[in-house]
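Bug #2210: token dump truncated for FecR family protein?
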Amino acid sequence: MSDKKNKVIISKYLNGEASEEEIMLLVSWLEDEKNKEVFKSYLIINHALDNTLIFDSLAAYKKTQRKIKKTERKGILRYLNVFEYAAVIAVIISAGYFFLNRDNLEETRDVISNNIAAGSDKAILTLSDGTNVTLDKNQSYASGNAKSNGSELIYSHVSKGKIVYNYLTVPRGGQFCLKLPDQTKVWLNSESKLKFPVDFIQGKTREVELVYGEAYFDVSHSTNYGGSSFKVLNHNQEVEVLGTQFNIKAYRDEQSIYTTLIEGSVEVHRSNYTEKLVPNQQSIINLSHRGIAVSTVDVNKIVSWKKGVFLFENESLKNIMKVLSRWYDIDIVFESKNIEAQTFNGALNKKQSITSILTMIKNTNNINYEIQGKTLIIR
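Reproduced locally. Full output below:
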């Protein structure tokens, strides 16, 4: 198949519109190792972030393989639907990824009545006098040099000559975007808090503090603001940049702080230790050890949360549930330590309901669950 035709068939497949012939062409094309990588890259860049739910499903694949052989003998292969082919294509790609179109998802979902909703744009703005302002999609806000449309808070430059701080707190089940007066943009993940000045002083270092949580920074270059550098402070590290994009993860319930560089360069400082990062590198500060560790990582996986998806690779169910608990604002209870250690691969669309995700886990690894109010019990 030509590259153009490949993209058309992939797009139709992910939207549940591919014919039997097109699906079989796709399956055949993916038998080539090089094509698997092309498919995965295309999926992440163009489709996975918006249209699909992906989850580990080797068990589903084996079941489908048996069904395919049975139907082939009967000459009725055409009755297999996209949902079933999905498991086949998934495992061809890599040891058990599961792709599922949203429409087909409804057919497999456990129907459980609960009040657990996916997260949304919301935050609390704390002004310098201690006043709290609720920001969400249902209302706009404007005061001084700040304004919000419900999903983004924007500050304009006013040159007051003194530093006045505000706080932006994103609760569990929320996310929010902030544009600082120097045009730096910050995306805050669930359960995060940022301290920042309502304006910067020209020529002086621009400083903000990630009190806790996770944030993605797209920093305006120093040449656009009098040559001043930009620093992100945290209680255990300091990140200094001139103009770049990076992600910091520093949750209160985790023992490590992760700084991941997407483009540009940053210096990470901790006591007497300093590490300079290049793109695709991540620094790790373990709070119980000295020094700063540096490794090469897949930045798409690290910052996928900002683009509407959670990517997991050989991640334990315990860590996956920690991420989901923040986004869906739920408490997690494991009835067995063995279950916590089970690992999964895949990507979850942040707009999916929690029950659809739990159904995938249940179907692929025979894990049962129960929802009681805002508590998820996994057994």
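Output looks complete on our side. The longest strand covers residues 206-218. Marking as cannot-reproduce; reopen if the truncation happens again.
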